[in-house]
Amino acid sequence: MNEEYKPSLDFVSKVMEQVHAYEASRTSFVEWFINHPSIRYALAGGGTLFGIFKAVPVF
Q: What is the value of pTM for the model shown?
């Protein structure tokens, strides 16, 4: 019972791969939807158009 535990040389990288896979699987649809670039551009464009149309009666 004097034998010491010696993990493999790539133990940390294997564990971190599993951690990254787990974290990637936790991404919710709402997070993905909010952070998606096309949604951001659509919201920015919509806000721009809304601002222009609201400013037109002023002039």
A: 0.45
